[in-house]
Amino acid sequence: TNGIDKPVLNVFRMLGRMSGRRVWTSSAGALPIEDVRDRSVRAAADVAAFATADARSAAVLVWNYHDDDLPGAASEVDLTISGLPAERASLTHYRVDADHSNAYTVWQQIGSPQSPTAAQLTRLEAAGRLQTLGPPSRVALTAHRVAVSFSLPRQAVSLVKLDW
């Protein structure tokens, strides 16, 4: 990697921001685990989630995965997080996709240099950091829940993190 962080490292960074106990999730776009195990992800994409919560935060990791790393349709995600013990929270949305937290895409865009210049290295290092879709926002929780909608590109991972 020549000291440049790859996108998969940013997925691990997302996982590192999750804490507490695992909590139940459901997704209309999730493939049954048996199908993934036995037939892989060849037809429809697997759009699923994993969530955790502790006394001061909740985090939901959402992915849009397909075995074929080719352009494909984004998935519209309507995420509802419920059972939250607060009235307000700070929401941060982290993303790994072709445009966020992805030094590999930037490396391709600059011509895939085997020996990047100092300026190119600076750009690659910045692209390799875990990025958000925007600044953290304060959200009001209605009936101890919050709803977040977003488009999730194919081969992308989002982490929606709430802190209170």
SSE inventory with pairings:
Layout: H1 7-16, E1 21-23, H2 33-39, E2 46-53, E3 57-65, E4 75-82, E5 88-96, H3 103-109, H4 118-127, E6 131-132, E7 137-140, E8 145-152, E9 156-163
Antiparallel strand pairs: 1-2, 2-3, 3-9, 4-8, 5-6, 5-7, 5-9
Measured on Cα atoms, how large is the radius of gyration?
17 Å
Total DSSP E strands: 9
Number of domains: 1
Overall pLDDT level: 95
Instruction: State the separation between the terminal residues, measured CA to CA.
Output: 37 Å
Helix-strand pattern: HEHEEEEHHEEEE
How can the largest sheet be summarized? 7 strands, antiparallel
- Residue share in β-strands: 35-45%
Kindly report the name of the CATH homologous superfamily.
Glycosyl hydrolase domain, family 39
CATH architecture: Sandwich
Shape by Cα distribution: globular
Alpha-beta classification: alpha+beta
Characterization of this structure:
The longest helix is centred in the first third of the chain and has 10 residues, at 7-16. The protein is globular and about 55 Å long. Strand 2 (46-53) and strand 3 form a beta hairpin. Helix 3 runs antiparallel to helix 4. Strands 1, 2, 3, 5, 6, 7 and 9 form a seven-stranded antiparallel beta sheet that branches. Strands 4-8 form a two-stranded antiparallel sheet. The protein starts with 6 loop residues before the first helix and ends with a strand. The model has no long low-confidence stretch (mean pLDDT 95). The chain has one domain (7-163): Immunoglobulin-like (Sandwich). The relative contact order is 0.26. The protein has 164 residues and is of the alpha+beta class. Helices cover 21% and strands 36% of the residues.
